[in-house]
Amino acid sequence: MGGMVRLMPNHDPNWKDRLEAARSRQSELLSREGILTEAEQAQLLALRQEADRAFNARFRTTAEYRDFYVGRARDLLEEEGIDMPIPSLADDATVEEIDRVLGMVWQAVEVTNSETF
Predict the structure, then answer these.
(1) Which residues contact 86 (CB under 8 A, 6 or more apart)?
(2) What are the residue ranges of helices labelled H in the chain?
């Protein structure tokens, strides 16, 4: 029997439409003259969060999510010259388990960058 996979809780086959709508509204707000109102700033923050959720809704399984973000993490570590092994994550790892490992990578990059400047 092969390994189990875990489906992403918020997979949405229409993720591209959601992402484009959020980005379009973001662009609209950011292209306005002058300073954004407090309500517009709150909307901009909400749109950024929606864009992140929409982007992550593209992944059908946590393994797809893991592979994408671990790949980006490896690229970042390489770009920053950090030699750090990334713990292995099973195909049925939860989003929380994956994010915990990724958090360690982002923290290592942050610490390294703060020490070099």
Answers:
(1) 70, 73, 74, 77, 101, 105
(2) 15-30, 38-56, 62-80, 95-116
Q: Do the beta carbons of residue 50 and residue 22 sit within 8 Å?
A: yes
Is 30:62 a contact under the CB 8 Å cutoff?
Answer: no
pLDDT in tens, 49-66: 999 999 999 999 999 999
- Cβ atoms of 26 and 44 within 8 Å: the answer is yes
Q: Rounded to an integer, what distance in angstroms lies between the CA atom of residue 27 and that of residue 82?
A: 35
93: pLDDT strictly greater than 80: yes
Closest CA to 89 of 112, 72, 65: 65
For 19-40, write each residue's pLDDT tens digit: 999 999 999 999 989 999 999 9
- The pLDDT, as a whole number, for residue 95 is 95
Rounded CA-CA distance 117/39 in Å is 36
CA 19 – CA 17 distance, rounded (Å): 5
